[in-house]
Write a structure and sequence with these properties.
Blueprint (H helix, E strand, L loop, with lengths): L1 H14 L17 H10 L5 E2 L6 E2 L8 E5 L16 E6 L5 E7 L6 E2 L7 H8 L4 E4 L4 H8 L5 E3 H4 L4 E3 L9 E4 H11 L24 E2 L2 E4 L9 E6 L4 E6 L2 E2 L10 E2 L1 E7 L1 E3 L6 E3 L5 E7 L2 E10 L2 E6 L2 E2 L7 E7 L4 H4 E4 L2
Parallel strand pairs: 3-7, 4-24, 7-8, 17-24
Antiparallel strand pairs: 1-2, 3-5, 4-5, 6-10, 9-10, 11-21, 12-13, 12-25, 13-14, 14-15, 14-16, 17-20, 18-19, 20-21, 21-22, 22-23
């Protein structure tokens, strides 16, 4: 308990200066992916492991995961904090628009956003990691879950202008932000515990990383709909051995620093989607399992996906497939579109 109190106190001190969203000059540099790889190498030999990245840490980490709904409308790009998420789910909301559920545990961005509204299937995904769930707004189905205490949460509908701040450089509904220090403040107000870290994911051992099977590919394109604004691409950088993300040809970077979103696992899967109301809200079947593609170390292969205690995980021959230590991005596309039509691979 004493360690947790000290940790929370230090985190507040480190992040308190960034409660208000504003344009930050920072270094205004594009952190090269090679530098990311060097930082990962420095972590080898440390005593502890982050549960959602498999990367090493010099200190024991008992932080609860934080799940934040992040806006992906073109008017909300580039986003803040996205590159520091351990896991990102990308799923359609209404129409052709995708939205992100970013899960943070190993890193705590000073500022996160723009924050967007909740849907019930995003809540289910967040529940799988026992996150403190952050959103601004909700569908009727999501509101029922949140108000009935299904998951610990902070919502901008109750805290707009207090815990959640409006950025002057964007217009609503693309301008709601929350700082990590305000997440801590809100958790304290609601008496939510932040001490329990999530269960570990399964990661590939270092000695086995060069044994990853699959077809070589330099890039993958993912189509969610006919609207190119929400289609994405992941380009493999052989120097850093990471995938750099793009939206409609534009690289996904941090608003403040221009640091790229770089991930180690790209997991693309199909699930049944159905429209349930006149506003185009959806139900997404996250329980039945199905087909998927897993990209790691410049190779792709076909896998299956299963829901294990709320987590969408890859399987091969009925055995869970390990992840490359690092960050993971998960795209869930409609099964009526299908992987064959929605996903294309490039080879240099």
């Amino acid at each position: 308990m004493k360690k947790s109190i000290i940790f929370l106190f230090m985190t507040v001190l480190l992040t308190a200066c960034s409660d208000d969203p504003k344009k930050v000059n920072g270094h205004n540099e594009n952190h090269q992916s090679g530098n990311i790889h060097k930082e990962q190498q420095k972590s080898e030999g440390l005593a502890y492991t982050y549960p959602l990245t498999g990367l090493k840490s010099k200190e024991e980490n008992s932080n609860r995961a934080i799940g934040v709904m992040i806006n992906n409308h073109p008017a909300a790009r580039p986003q803040s904090g996205l590159s520091q998420a351990d896991i990102v789910y990308e799923v359609l909301a209404e129409g052709d628009i995708t939205r992100f559920l970013a899960i943070f545990q190993s890193e705590h961005p000073k500022l996160i956003g723009p924050v967007r509204s909740s849907r019930d299937y995003y809540i289910e995904l967040a529940k799988g990691y026992d996150t403190l769930y952050i959103a601004h707004g909700y569908s009727p189905e999501a509101k029922k879950l949140l108000t009935n205490g299904y998951i610990d949460n902070l919502n901008g509908m109750q805290y707009d202008g207090t815990l959640f701040k409006r950025a002057s450089y964007r217009v609503a509904p693309h301008n709601s932000y929350i700082s990590y220090s305000n997440i801590l403040k809100g958790a304290k107000q609601k008496q939510y515990s932040l001490d329990q870290s999530p269960d570990n994911l399964l990661f590939i051992k270092k000695a086995d990383l060069d044994k990853i099977a699959g077809e070589k590919t330099s890039a993958v394109s993912v189509k969610f709909s006919s609207d190119n604004a929400y289609n994405s691409q992941f380009k493999y950088n052989s120097d850093s051995q990471k995938y750099l993300r793009y939206s409609n040809g534009e690289q996904t970077v941090e608003y403040e620093t221009k640091s790229p979103v770089a991930v180690d696992n790209v997991f693309i899967l199909e699930a049944r989607h159905s429209v349930v109301d006149k506003k185009g809200r959806r139900e997404v079947d996250l329980t039945s399992g199905g087909k998927g593609y897993l990209l790691q170390k410049g190779r792709w292969r076909e896998v299956e996906w299963k829901n294990i205690n709320g987590r969408i995980l890859p399987f091969e021959n009925n055995k869970q497939a390990g992840l490359v230590p690092g960050k993971t991005w998960i795209d869930i596309i409609p099964s009526n579109l299908g992987l064959n039509a929605a996903v294309s691979f490039e080879t240099r």
